[in-house]
Write a structure and sequence with these properties.
5-stranded parallel beta sheet, 276 residues, alpha/beta, 7 strands, 2 domains, 11 helices, two-stranded antiparallel sheet, Rossmann fold
């Protein structure tokens, strides 16, 4: 590696490590101390190693903060795309490119239970974390509870703002609860703020219901319900049809019980009996 490339690499690594240091400073030090090419290469390798460790640490922190289930982390490779058919399969397979979050588009995975909606939402979020994007995962019922608790303690603004910050916000199982009027107002305040959010952002939804049925899970007036349109103003909706993936590892064992043994019960003592 040439000296110029070494110094350029140091600039990149110093940025990753958030160090107030640059390649020009290393060039000055190397010149004053007469570093050999091998010594410069060793310094470059140390910076590269520290940069990789820092990047891994950031990703691990983002994954921990995301609230993803950690028992069996989902992956795109773990999703059985071979079961899918249709002209739009390419769009689904293109999810790992993260084009939607880069374009500020929301995503909705809809379809019957067991077709992998939550799986896809989770792996998309994990991929965002790997690219250094803050991600937060919660179920709609948890979001509803979060709003209720926030209102109880007068922390509505803080609760909403905390959910505006993540680049990728995942709301799972929209149809599992109903938001009352106050919580509906908070939900659409969240939607509106994220709609106006600058930079990379996306909200990912999963639901057994089609988007045109979601209104029944929110209690609000017409003005509030109009905010529902903002979710899908810029969005990709993946309507996944088919049978459930669940139960593929389930084994059913069939057995038959014979008729019970019959006999004559004879009184032996006042408290005991015996089968003859």
């Amino acid at each position: 590696m040439s000296e110029t490339n070494v110094y350029e690499k140091i600039d990149v690594c110093a940025g990753t490590l958030k160090l107030d240091f640059c390649g020009k400073e290393l060039a000055t030090i190397a010149s004053n101390r007469h570093y050999t090419k091998e010594q410069l290469q060793a310094v470059s390798e140390v910076f590269d190693y520290l940069s990789v460790k820092k990047h891994e640490s950031v990703i691990n922190t983002l994954l921990k903060m995301s609230r993803f289930p950690t028992k069996e982390p989902k992956t795109f490779d773990g999703y059985d795309f071979s079961r899918l058919r249709g002209d739009d399969i390419g769009a689904l397979k293109g999810l790992p490119s993260l084009s939607d979050v880069n374009a500020g588009r929301n995503i909705a995975f809809v379809g019957p239970a067991g077709v992998g909606k939550t799986h896809l939402a989770e792996v998309y979020g994990r991929e965002c974390c790997k690219q250094g994007m803050k991600t937060y995962f919660l179920k709609a019922s948890e979001l509803n509870d979060k709003f209720t608790i926030a209102r109880k303690y007068g922390r509505e603004a803080h609760a909403v703002q905390s959910l505006v910050k993540p680049t990728c916000l995942i709301i799972d199982e929209v149809e599992r609860c109903r938001f009352n009027r106050d919580n509906t107002a908070m939900f659409f305040d969240l939607v509106d703020r994220r709609y106006e959010k600058e930079g990379l952002h996306t909200i990912i939804f999963t639901s057994n219901k089609q988007p045109n049925e979601w209104a029944e899970y929110f209690d609000g007036n017409d003005d509030l319900m109009c905010s529902l349109d903002r979710i899908f103003d810029r969005a990709s909706i993946f309507d996944i049809k088919g049978e459930s993936y669940r139960g593929r590892a389930c084994t059913t064992y069939a057995v038959e019980a014979s008729a019970p043994v019959t006999g004559i019960v004879k009184q032996v003592t006042k408290d005991k009996s015996v089968l003859m």
